[in-house]
## 1
Amino acid sequence: MTSSLSPGAIDQGTAAVLVENHRRFLAFLQRRVPSREIAEDILQDAFVRGLTRAPDLATSESVMAWFYRVLRNAIVDYYRRAGVEERAIERYAAETNDTVDPVDAELFDTVCDCVRSLVSTLKPEYAAAINRVSLDGISPSAFAAETGISANNAGVRLHRAHKALKERVREVCNTCADHGCSPCSCKPHRSHC
């Protein structure tokens, strides 16, 4: 099965061995990562890397051994990235945990009506996080206790909710997303809210 490949070329024999063993590779990954979706993502990335960077291999056994090494490295990379992300989330949660003061009435009044109405267009758990923490002024840890989730998860949810709201504001109220809502210039677009 040896061949001389140009960079980026796909050896059909290697590709055939990899495709034939797709289920075996997926099962291997599923036993080592939290979900099937993650396993599928890792496998997809490994296939792309494997098919474009496959070394010249003489037998299907050597293809299998090589690809299992690729998968093991991909698992290590996944957990390394997950660890970095988890530590960042923990830092964010620690920074925001119990540091939210009750919302200043003047600040609350400057949030335009469009933004308030856009909160309701978010996923229900995101809308609840923004309403309770950012608008009602309860602490993230109180919100966590109220909803039965960990303080860390509450911090993550709040972060993602703010990100989703910012994207939604950018879609509907372009100017307010960049320059703030005071004075609100997106009232003509309220029909989109």
Note: Residues 105-192 form a domain with the Arc Repressor Mutant, subunit A fold (CATH 1.10.10).
## 2
Amino acid sequence: MQYDPIKRSLGKVFNLHPLLRALFYRLLDLLLLRSWYLRRELRQWQLSAPADARILDAGSGFGQYVWRLARMGEDFQVTGVDVKKEQVADCNAWFARAGLAARVHFRVQELEVLHDEERYDLVLSVDVMEHIEADEKVMQNLCRALKPGGLLLISTPSDQGGSDTRHHHQEGPTGFIDEHVRDGYNRDDIREKLLSAGFSEVEVAYTYGRPGSLAWKLSMKFPILMLNASKVFFIVLPFYYLLAWPIACCLNYADLRQTHASGTGLLVKARR
């Protein structure tokens, strides 16, 4: 299934007014379990972060995490990079209206040819690596872009069924989200790739255990399937979430509080 058309449709709706865009970011923070995990890690990182930290969001998309990071420190300098020109232009325009243009900038950039060196204290990569064939090259580039001691945070599907994937030898799309180039990462494989890329310390933990996987189906998979079937479901969606969200919220909280022996997601912390 193609996920990007749904994201573009939602983006148009929430771009109708600046306050709607900020509301959109808050809703994503509530709905997406990966955001729950990342917020926890970012709060921990902030405790020892320099006051004028430089941050890179490698694959910034709608700018959800750039928005959060820019508001975490009044002197933080945040750069968002993405391959989609229209999305980069949209984010630059909106963050300028939000009064953050002096500290936040977006640019069109392929991570395979990122040439920044020892520039950032933190690099964020959220649901990006599974879209990139040359992932080892990108990991090397992100390592080089970090200052010594800098931190890379990655959220990506695991090979335990991330995004409801099927194996590539089967005919047709490989899973719920067709844009992925791999079914997901093996925990040991991504650790070895990052160590080979130059990182000195790598921690990999499963996310989206049983509670989180069920929450993802309730809060993301089923609504997206409905919207793919018909745009009429945009009208139904608020009523659906009134029923589904309290359940998904409890499941997200349960997932965050557990240590998982297996899960459909991975949270990776790599230190240069």
Note: Confidence is low (pLDDT under 50) at residues 166-174.
## 3
Amino acid sequence: MSNWRKNLYDIIETDSPAVNSKLYDWLMLIFIVISLIPLAFREQTPMFIWFDRVSVCVFIIDYIFRWMTADYKLSNRPKWKAFLLYPFTPLAIVDLLSIIPSFTFFSRAFKLFRITRLFKILRVLRFMRYSKNIRILFRVLRKERRILFTVFLIAVGYIITTALIMFNLEDSEMFGSFFDALYWATTTLTTVGYGDIYPETDIGRVISMFSAVFGIAVIALPSGVITASYLDELREEKKNPK
């Protein structure tokens, strides 16, 4: 009785090499592109409205299909738990966020009409599930999450510390508020340095130099970790192709 659900799962599961599964993937990609076309124009023509309606209908059907086969996707869970937990999985949340912005009554309820268009950009995230390399990258980020989180905490701590030092050290309009100092510390640490806010004292400039050098190290560390782990995942994929 559940064979049809298993067949459906084999079709919508992107790792399946079957022709109908690949066809389904390409069809979804086409509708994703169609749904993004209206976002490149300010005006909403009737054609764009229909683009949105058709694509969101396809996304809803896709979401329902994946929910119906959640017990196969989450096979390590009891069946009832799989159906219950599926809407809270990362990719299911991405799918739902790609659907919700098309229903204007959400923006009408909160009187935030213009925010709806901004939320539509979340549909770009739907491309992630159809890219093998992106899925590998997600596995890398999950695998190295502890060291990446540690680097993030170090960066945040350094930004706050240097911002406090600069805010109390520089007595000028450049650092009129602590937020200005945070903005300067962030752009300096990331080696962006827009130049709109800069220290005027010698001590402040020395701190800026240290911050820029430290920023290079902070950026280089996670980049090296991700690159090494990504290469390991690629080698693992070649050894054990799915």
Note: The chain has twelve helices and no strands.
